[in-house]
Amino acid sequence: MAYPTIALDGAVVAVTGGARGIGKATADLFASKGAVVCIGDLDPAEAADALVVDVTSRASFGAFVDTVLERHGRIDILVNNAGVMPLGDFLAENDAISRTTLDVNVWGLIHGMRAVMPHMLKRGRGHVVNVASMAGKLVVPGLAVYNASKFAAVGLSAAVREEYRSTGVSVSAVLPSAVRTRLASGVPLGRGLPTVDADDVARAIVGSVRSRRAEITVPRYLAGWDLVNAAVPEPVMRLGRKLIGDRRALTSVQDDVRAAYEETIAAQAGR
SUPFAM superfamilies recorded for this chain (predicted)? Predict the structure, then answer.
């Protein structure tokens, strides 16, 4: 369907996880287009004027949304960007870490959409961007629970989009490949693994306001992955995986580089 146009100049945009990485790049790009950007983050000290939001808490997300509505009267665009990505052997991963991954990467989206979409539906217009991952389409050893969370994010986005397709409110999922942010710290990137920068993902997120496409891969050529995955025999796929070193999240992580990020996840899991 043709969704109501949202002009970026003057649009009110809420971005979670907006203090750094993809979120910061997205907030900066929206602001450069004239949008009024409201950043929510668990660590607001990283960004001026950011509001505290714990996306795993419906009450915290609701308070964030209420503050934005009180200040600006509406939310035209919600970018559900906050996410975590622990690495390691599936059986060895601590339950609290696994639970936090699902709470942030799946429940964060659910809480965000349930907090914002009722206001959008009343106005008959609005756009939600759920930042998923190509890990929601292809599996990566060492990322089992993260894979599960991103497969869920892709399916959730598609289902909510379809359920509300005639309301004027759209939902898009953005699926980046490996991104050069702290989530991938300590993991060797490149060497056959499609890798992008936060600015590339930001452009896709902002571009979705115009296109309103259901799924947007970054880079764009990965949009054909579903067909490739269905058509290529498993032995050939495994050979390709071996050639690009798909087990690097298990075998090649620089623990000293990644330690600080893993400590951040552990601290969040212990909250």
Answer: NAD(P)-binding Rossmann-fold domains (SSF51735)
Residue 2 tokens read as 């043709």
Residues shown for the chain: 271
Q: Which residue has the tokens 């306001």?
A: 209
Of 193 and 78, the structure prediction assigns the larger pLDDT to 78
Residue ranges of domains in the chain, CATH in brackets: 12-270 (3.40.50.720)
Using DSSP's 3-state secondary structure scheme, residue 214 falls into coil
3 has catalytic annotation = no
Report the run of H or E that residue 115 belongs to, with start and end: helix 108-123
Residue 1 has pLDDT above 80, yes or no: no
Q: Which two tokens stand for residue 156?
A: 């959730």
Measure CA 118 to chain center. Answer: 21
Q: At what angle do helices 95-102 and 144-163 cross, to 10 degrees?
A: 20
Fill in the amino acid letter for 4: P
150 closest CA partner among 128, 116, 174 = 174
**219 upstream amide cis, omega within 30 of 0:** yes
Task: Provide the residue type at 130 as one letter.
Answer: N
Q: DSSP letter string over 20-53? A: SHHHHHHHHHHHHTT-EEEEEESSGGGSTTPEE-
Mean of per-residue pLDDT scores for the chain: 94
CA distances from 226 to 138, 162, 179 (A): 9, 19, 20
Q: Of 170, 166, 178, 188, which Cα lies nearest the Cα of 255?
A: 188
Give CA angle at 121 (166, 22), nearest 5°: 95
Asked whether the predicted pLDDT for residue 38 surpasses 90, the reply is: yes
| SS3 label, residue 161 | helix
Selected catalytic residue, list 3, 146, 164, 221 = 146
